[in-house]
Design goal:
Blueprint: H1 2-19, E1 31-34, E2 37-46, E3 51-57, E4 60-61, E5 72-73, E6 81-85, E7 93-97, E8 103-111, H2 120-143
Parallel strand pairs: 4-5
Antiparallel strand pairs: 1-2, 2-8, 3-6, 6-7, 7-8
Helix pairs in contact: 1-2
Length: 144
């Protein structure tokens, strides 16, 4: 009976750990974040002579839906540079240097709600692992 109960608890905890893993989902649109501002990638090119000074670059890339801190992108790789556009306020649009050397316009979409460094899934995974380790320790002690 005790062995059956123990196995049931182990299977439940294992199932919980597997269920809590990060969900891979598609973003609604491609974007970049610079200094807390979110910009939606458009299909409009910006000519090189319209590009002004560099204002930042991608410091974190992920294609997994979530919230991230820093200058983040769900489309461009780490290191991709952002530039201001001559005559355009950065609260309206910026230019993003694409891999082929062209510049793509990214339109301001408001403040980015990301930056949360706390993850509930990590907390639940850690709690599940801690419980599993405690149960294994108790069982091992009782067998001696």
């Amino acid at each position: 009976m005790k062995k059956s109960l123990f196995l049931l608890i182990v299977f439940c905890l294992s199932g919980t750990l597997l269920a809590v893993r990060a969900v891979h989902a598609d973003w609604a649109y491609s974007f970049v974040v610079n200094e807390g501002k979110s910009y939606v990638i458009s299909d409009k090119r910006v000519e090189a002579e319209e590009v002004d000074s560099m204002i930042g670059k991608v410091t974190k890339y992920s294609d997994e839906e979530g919230t991230y801190s820093g200058n983040f992108s769900n489309y461009y790789p780490k290191g991709t540079q952002y530039y201001s556009i001559k005559g355009v306020n950065i609260n309206e649009a910026i230019a993003v240097k694409a891999g082929n050397g062209t510049f793509i316009r990214a339109d301001y979409n408001g403040e980015y709600a990301g930056g949360a460094s706390f993850s509930w899934s990590i907390l639940w995974s850690a709690a599940g692992l801690l419980l599993l380790a405690a149960l294994l320790f108790i069982v091992a002690r009782k067998r001696r």
